[in-house]
Each structure stands twice: as structure tokens, then as C-alpha cells.
């Protein structure tokens, strides 16, 4: 019995020690040779947070080795009582930690250059981008320098990770851009990341064809006008950050407005957004931030400083495109707003140089203007991003 057992063991050990493998993803590309080296195992150690695929049905270490060898992303592998884990990191990029349930193995491969590769060494081809491993619109490039790096993904600004697998939207536009958002997203509350890639906050987004995404920075009902009247966008006056869908009283913190503005192109003011299907057809204003940075810049006398160019404005059915309108804002004094004034282009007929203020300052409150046609009617300000 014992003799038989020893014979069995001595037979199996040399086999395990000498498992060779050669993988050639492409006929005319480079190949990877590797050997399963049982004696290089790290017993009782493992890598935390680096597994990208778990194979619970693979119960033998050689099966785990074969699985790793056949994947371009795999750098190391480990076995535990729950099966085989393929790792996208190895002990050179992360620290092994003790865990008696695990055995860790490094994938040691070398590059075998085919004759066609030798003939044309400037062209790196290993087939590792064929399966489109980069997610969220990342760009894949095959790499032939080192057997542990077979491809790299260059991620768009809204994704991170080796394969750009973590979608990290930083503005409403990212929901438009991301390839997994194939259908046009709909207006509503979305969660985005701050620039640190870890802090989340909620925003209200609207999407307009063909290429714009709008982030709500403020909204208030006419009954709260006294509270908002002196609050220019230079003030930090956060309100109801957790409920951007509450348009009766909402305002983004100034630093969040600034973060969104950093990549925005335009701004707009709308009336009663939540109750109307089309907010551009009446009582609407849109301008470029390059013509007036409403987050950072006051707008005041003297003439013609306050005549600011707008892309489009509509007040009570009167409109003009690519024209100027008197726009005001003053820290601690005036909310951003528009006025009919001599000198600027936008002067609706019937205008008689008495106060007629719109989009954030209403004195008197006009029931003919949609933002103020009832106590619950709202004025909204937005920052706009554009798809290039
Ligand atoms: C694989 O399993 C380990 C241990 O259960 C777990 O920590 C890890 O998150 C899993 N990885 C994936 C990609 O599911
Ligand atoms: C956040 O992720 C983006 C996109 O990958 C990256 O460019 C940026 O440097 C990251 N920021 C931090 C603070 O890590
Ligand atoms: C909204 O109304 C404007 C002006 O009437 C029109 O040009 C635009 O196409 C409308 N937009 C939608 C989405 O219906
Ligand atoms: C000026 O216009 C306002 C608002 O349309 C109106 O209430 C007022 O009667 C007008 N004043 C004159 C002198 O026409």
C-alpha cells in the first residue's frame, strides 16, 4: 500500500513541475510561453481586491494555471476552497497578505517572437485587443514589451480601472457619452462623482438634442423669491443638495457649481421646467459662458457692460437670436437676471423703459411671465455641456 502510494506521488510530482504552455492568440503575432512552477507557490498568502474573474468550478491548480494563461489580463492566480481566482495584479504591484485558505501563484511567461514578428518588429500584434477588453469607451492598445502587460486601455475622463470598468460620470454629459447609455437618457436625478473619483453627489440633468446635457444649479418657486433675490451665483448658498428633483427650492453648493462649470460651455434659464414638455418655446434664455461667466462674474453698470450676448432669448413670446440683453448680477445684492434696457438689442415692443425684470428678479411680479404666473411657478438656472 505504502509503496504503491509513493510510486504514485513520485510519478505525479514531475508532471506537475513540468506543465508547459504556449499561447499564440494570433498566427502572425507574438506568442507567450509559460511553465507551471509548483515550487514557486506562496502557500497561505493571497492578493486582496485584485481578482477580476472567479472560476468556482476549477478545483485543480493546473486548471487555474491554464485559465490564467489563456487570458490577456491575467498576471497571477490563486486557489482557495471556493475555487480559482484570476488576478489582474501580482505581488509586484500589490502586497501579499496572509490567509491560510489560499495558495498564490505568479504567472511567469516569456515572449516568443514569431518569424513574421521578427521581420516586422515595429508592429506589435498579440490579439489581446480583439475581444474589446476596454469598457466604457476606453481605447485598447496591444503591448509586446513585457509578458505581464499584453494590452493597455486609455480611459475617457469618466472611467477608471485597468479596463476602464468603473464608470465615473463627472457631469450630466457623461451619461450621454458613455457607450453603455445607448439610448438617449431622460431628464431626472443622476449621481455623479467629484474630481477625487470617490465622493458622490446628486444632480438634476436634462438632455436636449442633438448634443447638449444640462445640469440644474438652482431652482426656486416664486413664493421663495425674497430668499433668492439677493443671492448672486458668487454666493455659496447650498439648499436641498440631497433632493435636486425638488425644484421649489434647490441650489448647488458653489464649489460643485464651479466643478461643473469647469467643463461647461453655456448656461440657460427656464420657467416651470417640470410642468412643460418644451421649455424653449417661451420665456427662455440661453448664452455662452464665454460671453458671460455667470458663476464668477458680476454684471453691472456702466452701459454697455451689462449688454451681454445671448444665443437666444424669449420673453413673453418676443424673442431674438444672437443678440444682446441687459443682464445683471451683483454679489450680496442681485440675483442674476435680465432687464429690458435701452442700448441693448433685446427690446420687445411695448417696452417703455419702466422696470421689466425677468429670470431671477421680479419687480413687479408679472403673471404674464411663465416663471412667475403663480406662487408655485419656478425659475431654473442650468449649466450646459456639449458633445464635440
Ligand atoms: C472572487 O472571490 C473573492 C473571494 O470570495 C471575492 O473577494 C472577489 O470579490 C471575487 N471576485 C469577483 C470578480 O467576483
Ligand atoms: C479621476 O479619474 C480621471 C479619469 O480617469 C483621472 O484623469 C483623474 O486623474 C482622477 N483623479 C484623481 C484625483 O484620482
Ligand atoms: C420647442 O419649441 C421651439 C420653438 O417653438 C421649437 O423650435 C423646438 O423644436 C421645440 N422643441 C421640441 C423638443 O419640441
Ligand atoms: C409701461 O409698461 C408697463 C408694463 O408693460 C405698464 O404696466 C405701464 O402702464 C407702462 N407705462 C406707460 C407709461 O406706458
From TrEMBL:
Residues 1-21 form the signal peptide. One of its GO terms (molecular function) is metal ion binding. GO terms for cellular component: extracellular space. Keywords: Calcium, Disulfide bond, Lectin, Metal-binding, Signal. Residues 31-109 form the Apple domain. The keyword Cell wall biogenesis/degradation does not apply. Belongs to the EGF domain peptide family. This is Apple domain-containing protein. It comes from Nematostella vectensis.
Amino acid at each position: 500500500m505504502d509503496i504503491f502510494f509513493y510510486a504514485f506521488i513520485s510519478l505525479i510530482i514531475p508532471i506537475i513541475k513540468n506543465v508547459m504552455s504556449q499561447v499564440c492568440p494570433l498566427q502572425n503575432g507574438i506568442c507567450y510561453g509559460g511553465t507551471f512552477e509548483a515550487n514557486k507557490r506562496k502557500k497561505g498568502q493571497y492578493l486582496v481586491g485584485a481578482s477580476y474573474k472567479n472560476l468556482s468550478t476549477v478545483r485543480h491548480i493546473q486548471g487555474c494555471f491554464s485559465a490564467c494563461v489563456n487570458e490577456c489580463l491575467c498576471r497571477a492566480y490563486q486557489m482557495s476552497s471556493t475555487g480559482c481566482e484570476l488576478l489582474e495584479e501580482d505581488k509586484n504591484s500589490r502586497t501579499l497578505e496572509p490567509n491560510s485558505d489560499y495558495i498564490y501563484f505568479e504567472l511567469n511567461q516569456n515572449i516568443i517572437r514569431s518569424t513574421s514578428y521578427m521581420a516586422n518588429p515595429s508592429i506589435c500584434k498579440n490579439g489581446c485587443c480583439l475581444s474589446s477588453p476596454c469598457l466604457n469607451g476606453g481605447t485598447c492598445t496591444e503591448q509586446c514589451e513585457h509578458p505581464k502587460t499584453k494590452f493597455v486601455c486609455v480611459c475617457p475622463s469618466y472611467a477608471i480601472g485597468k479596463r476602464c470598468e468603473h464608470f465615473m460620470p463627472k457631469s450630466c454629459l457623461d451619461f450621454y457619452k458613455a457607450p453603455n447609455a445607448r439610448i438617449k437618457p431622460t431628464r431626472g436625478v443622476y449621481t455623479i462623482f467629484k474630481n477625487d473619483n470617490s465622493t458622490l453627489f446628486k444632480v438634476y440633468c436634462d438632455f436636449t438634442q442633438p448634443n447638449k446635457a444640462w445640469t440644474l444649479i438652482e431652482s426656486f418657486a416664486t413664493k421663495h423669491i425674497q430668499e433668492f433675490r439677493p443671492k448672486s451665483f458668487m454666493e455659496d448658498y447650498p439648499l436641498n443638495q440631497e433632493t435636486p428633483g425638488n425644484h421649489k427650492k434647490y441650489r448647488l453648493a458653489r464649489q460643485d457649481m464651479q466643478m461643473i462649470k469647469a467643463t461647461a460651455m453655456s448656461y440657460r434659464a427656464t420657467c416651470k421646467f417640470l410642468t412643460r414638455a418644451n421649455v424653449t418655446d417661451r420665456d427662455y434664455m440661453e448664452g455662452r459662458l464665454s460671453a458671460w461667466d455667470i458663476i464668477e462674474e458680476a454684471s453691472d453698470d456702466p452701459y454697455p457692460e451689462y449688454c451681454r450676448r445671448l444665443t437666444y432669448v424669449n420673453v413673453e413670446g418676443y424673442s431674438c437670436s444672437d443678440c444682446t440683453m441687459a443682464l445683471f448680477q451683483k454679489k450680496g445684492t442681485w440675483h442674476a437676471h435680465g432687464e429690458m434696457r435701452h442700448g441693448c438689442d433685446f427690446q420687445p415692443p411695448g417696452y417703455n423703459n419702466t422696470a421689466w425684470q425677468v429670470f431671477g428678479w421680479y419687480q413687479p411680479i408679472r403673471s404674464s411671465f411663465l416663471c412667475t404666473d403663480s406662487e408655485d411657478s419656478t425659475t431654473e438656472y442650468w449649466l450646459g455641456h456639449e458633445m464635440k
